[in-house]
Write the structure tokens for this entry.
Amino acid sequence: MALKQVSSTKPRSARGVKVAQPVSVVPSDPSLCASGVAVIETEARALASLAARVGHSFADACRLMLQCRGRVVVTGMGKSGHVGRKISATLASAGTPSFFMHPGEASHGDLGMITGDDVVLAISNSGGTSEIVTILPLIKRRGVPLITLTGDGQSHMAEAADVNIDVGVEEEACPLGLAPTASTTATLAMGDALAIALLEARGFSAEDFARSHPGGRLGRRLLLHVSDIMHTGDDMPTVALDVPVSQALMEMTRTGLGTAAIVDAESKVLGIYTDGDLRRTLDREVDVHKAKISEVMTAECITVAPNMLAAEGLKIMEDREINSLLVVDTEHRLVGVLVMHDLLRAGVI
């Protein structure tokens, strides 16, 4: 007997779940915007109520993490896991060593990541996530302090914790009350609150922050020194005091830096000649082949030390409206030339 094929006009997945299709009538701008505003207002109310719950439990959690000799191991499942990864990353970048452990993988060997010196921060809105509940006895057996962020203070996880912080919300922003929205926002905010409270308690500075962000703009501004990017050796345009201006121009052209350092036999800086000086020289109709560089150079030029932060060098250039700096050692001998383009290329600007 032949089987009759039945076609469906409603596409469904292999498990019978309805597949999303483009809507035939697109809602108006006011309708879409009203939905967006409602979500933001719901989450704003959740955050406002969260602030009142920052109390003894919050302080106790901070103290546990401050006393931790190892790392803060953050764990969470589903959306709580995504939030946990962000909280862990924020802790690590703000001076509290941390990593994320997937609770499902923990039951298959990753629990070995946790040492007796660590603190576990477990996240679950319900407080009953099975993957986390399964590993709780093993965490407790190791004597590892347990901090939980839950939406139910009477849950299994909350009762098993050394410290539980209430991150519950009255309602989700999802109209179905199903998709984690306000609850994940509240949890994320509480994680940020913990990270920044720890940062301030440790006296974590901008320089400390930059050391863990060497590739970012802040890291370059706070860690890069003049000596790291200045031109040295044959790349330095230098001329003697008695050479004609034309020779200085040839040296400026050779290096392409738009400047020349005038030095004595011991490389001590006597002055500087720049593109700006050249324009002034031409305005005065000076014969560049006959005039000595000593007649047109800037004698009282600004110099900096090689160990100065590149960002400080940038500020000097901006304040003085100049495009280059001569770098000298303690004996005022030329050791480098820094130009604005170097700062731009290095990402300091």
User: Anything to note?
Assistant: The chain has two domains: 36-204, 226-345. The longest helix spans residues 29-51.
